[in-house]
């Protein structure tokens, strides 16, 4: 654990709310981006980010400094995102998104037909299964082995989901 | 010229997942096939754009809500801890008081057996110095205590995790139960309730371990806890004693 991290964590543990805000300001952009892309929903990602940092607040006592604070936060956030997506609430909301029952992209009425959408919005429109694998692999840079462990699937499934996502994105970004 | 590789093969080529011989074959094909080269270029563009995506600043209201939630959770947690602790200690203290009050009246009765008793004192003594009543008071309190302990053990026995698991709530509850468990065990021993005292003794060791343990456990640590609960048969014993107590008739 670096000295600034150690000091920040010690202050947070002592109940210093300014220190916790500093921790939030420093790390929330990366974790918000993760939550935003994993859920594909601006509204849900805000709720999820709040839940992630509530967990951080509760669990900071268990942080032993074996890894960098950012790494510890990131792992916690990934687990929280996956838990969220596994939850019934997450599935119900995903079912009402702009994907058809086969997970195919259905253009929003706000979009101009034929207009090229950017990658951020295109990722949000991927079916949940391949979106998660794509976010973790192509955006977050995790190995298929790590993703397979996190998702409880084989490496082959992780690879095929990333391929599926790339194929859909290629079509959306043309 | 080879037939066109599938898009999946082109993706694997990009990922360098093909055998060396196939990598060379596809590379050779791409030099002469504009269609396949375009597919690869488009896959590359997707990967390039995705990897360039950066952090996103969350809206300010997320922090506002979060900071308020933290304030709320702090006060709720403090209230819960205090309520649980005072409730457990008050119940335990009442049981112990009932027990010792009974003993006091027994001793006093032997010393002043010839003295006349008032009607009120008789009424009090009738219940307090009756060993059956005292035993029943203890068992009712212990039954409730065992039920709450059982909830903690069941929760941990059924918990699952693939990474780390927050057991801070169970840890806190174990800590709260520990103090009353000691009082009940000592009282049960003094009353000659060997079975109850024995189970409380075994339960106490598990509660100590949980209360002194980490608030977050790994998959292996959780498995160790579950193994200890199972190997000692403590959950079964707690259930049996708790069930026996509940089945006893109310006096």
Descriptive account of the structure:
The complex is a heterodimer of chains A (174) and B (251). By secondary structure, chain A is mainly alpha-helical. Chain A has 2 domains: 1-97, RNA polymerase sigma factor, region 2, helix turn helix motif (Rna Polymerase Sigma Factor, Chain: A), CATH 1.10.1740.10; 101-174, Winged helix-like DNA-binding domain superfamily/Winged helix DNA-binding domain (Arc Repressor Mutant, subunit A). Chain A is built from 9 helices and no strands. Chain A has helices spanning 3-13, 17-39, 42-59, 69-86, 88-95, 119-124, 128-139, 144-151, 155-172. In chain A, helix 3 (42-59) packs across helix 4 (69-86). The longest helix of chain A is centred in the N-terminal third of the chain and has 23 residues, at 17-39. In chain B, strands 1-2 form a two-stranded antiparallel sheet. The termini of chain B are far apart. Chain B is mostly helical and 251 residues long. The model of chain B has no long low-confidence stretch (mean pLDDT 79). In chain B, helix 1 (7-15) crosses helix 3 and helix 6 (131-157) packs antiparallel against helix 10. In chain B, 79% of the residues lie in helices and 2% in strands. Chain B folds into 2 domains: 7-51, no CATH class; 88-247. The chains are: A mainly alpha (174), B mainly alpha (251). The A-B interface holds A 17, 20-21, 24-25, 28-30, 32-33, 36-37, 46, 49-50, 53-55, 57-59, 61-62, 75, 79, 119-120, 123, 134, 138-139, 141, 149-150, 152, 159, 163, 166-167, 169-170, 173-174 and B 7-8, 11, 15, 17, 39, 42-43, 45-47, 49-51, 53-59, 61-63, 65-67, 69-70, 73, 162-164, 166, 168, 214-216.
User: Could you describe the largest sheet of chain A, including whether it forms a barrel?
Assistant: none
Give the helix proportion of chain B (percent range).
over 70%
Helix content of chain A: over 70%
Structural category of chain B is mainly alpha
Radius of gyration of chain A: 18 Å
**Shape estimate of chain B:** elongated
What structural class should be given to the helix and strand makeup of chain A?
Answer: mainly alpha
